[in-house]
Specification:
mainly alpha, single chain, 33% helix
Length: 61
């Protein structure tokens, strides 16, 4: 029996495939390999917003 590793699919409600998926495994992570200049990730954006809000409550001196 083949070893089945359960992985989360990005598409909602995607059915698990039993074929070895070498089809888009190499093509998908390339979107995240090099981020576009000027585009921040969600975590980076949230961290910067929190820093801006925290800076409001800090004394200036």
């Amino acid at each position: 029996a083949p070893i089945v590793t359960q992985r989360l699919d990005r598409t909602a409600g995607a059915a698990p495939r039993d074929d070895d998926d070498t089809t888009n495994e190499s093509a998908e992570p390339l979107r995240f390999a090099e981020p576009l200049p000027g585009v921040m990730s969600d975590a980076q954006y949230r961290a910067r917003r929190l820093a801006q809000i925290a800076a409001r409550h800090m004394p200036r001196g």
